[in-house]
Specification:
Layout: H1 8-26, H2 31-38, H3 42-55, E1 58-60, E2 79-81, E3 87-93, E4 97-104, E5 109-116, H4 123-141, E6 148-155, H5 180-188, E7 192-196, H6 197-207, E8 217-222, E9 226-232, E10 235-237, H7 267-271, H8 273-278, H9 281-284, H10 290-298, H11 302-326, E11 330-334, H12 342-355, H13 358-361, E12 365-368, H14 375-392
Parallel strand pairs: 3-6, 6-7, 8-11, 11-12
Antiparallel strand pairs: 1-2, 3-4, 4-5, 8-9, 9-10
Helix pairs in contact: 1-2, 1-14, 2-3, 4-5, 6-14, 11-12
Organism: Actinomadura nitritigenes
Protein name: ROK family transcriptional regulator
InterPro entries: ATPase_NBD, ROK, ROK_cs, WH-like_DNA-bd_sf, WH_DNA-bd_sf
Length: 409
Amino acid sequence: MDDAPGSLTSLRSRNRLLVIDAVRRHGRISRVDIARATGLSRTTVSGLVTALLAEGVLTESADGAVPSTARGGRPATPLTLNPEGGGLLGVHLRHTDVRVLLADLSGGVLGEHHREIDVDHRPDEALEFIADTALDLVATVGRDAGRIFGMGVAVSAPVQSRSHTLSLPSMLSGWTDADIAAHLNRRIGLPVHVGNDANLGALAEWTFGAGRGVDDLIYIMLSDGVGAGLILDGRSYQGATGTAGELGHIAVVDGGYVCRCGNRGCLETAVGAQALTAAFSRTRGPDTTITDVVALLAADDPGARRVVTDAGRMVGRALAGICAMLEPRMVVVGGQVAALGRPLLDGIREVLGDRLPPAINQGITVTGSVLGDRAEVFGAIVLATRQTSARLLAPHFDRTPPDAGSGRG
């Protein structure tokens, strides 16, 4: 069948995905409200829902009816994603560690593994860990391997929006020639899709977390690296080449430290996890961690409060111009550094209050991530769903990954 853009097959696939996304976003939703949320006709929604119920992708909730938003409408039987309908794999490749997670279609965690690896300089080790762990998770959980629909991978580098490959030259120096999707596809036999981690963190918070119901938001990922993801008018915005949101590489300190991108004084060199913990190296020792700084804040240590509030102010300065241009409804702060909590958020709020017109600033909520250090891996799962569900969440899907014991060292 013709699935070229604009064909009937392509249109039906797109509509299936709209329905699945609407159910995921709302958790429990009626057919009428799916039509309202997607703009599809009730007849189209009814046909798609009937097919998705038959395939086991959706299920009618046993929790009872939900009120219809239509005037005079009777309570309707809610639809939910069927946790037993299949699974998806998500991966987050940070600079210093790898997380692999297997989730059901509703986002429930079935299994998860995490390991510290020097990702920047040891791509082969990182990719082998991902492949081995993914196969182990599927085997351990005992799900039908043919109903694991795909894998999403979040990477701490810009990704070309069309090809889902790393933008070149890559800021991950050891990954310049690595084709992540092709390598993992060969090992696990699943469709693999790659995205920038901050963009995917934004998608996850919008779908499952703090930004649920907010269609214009900025997600700030503060970890070893610093990035931003944009949701504008309910859509992920990545720019012409996929590099929009590289907040961490805005120069904020004249003559500052050299950044991994090649410039000096980038925001990442001032407020990334390594920069913040380094501020305590003389008084607390070189092995200070973000967890240690959290403990200092809990003890009301004035030095920790000062360092973290200053970091928030610096993020606010980098963010103010973006907020003035885009007028988001919400700023969600996530990543490892977000665990520092209120002083960090207060520093951001303070600067936005000083630098933005009141008409804009009063409409912006600054809040912490709900998903925490899982935001990016959940975003990778949403990416996998969006890229594969139109084709693979379909009847008679039958594919078995390679033997769990094959191809291992």
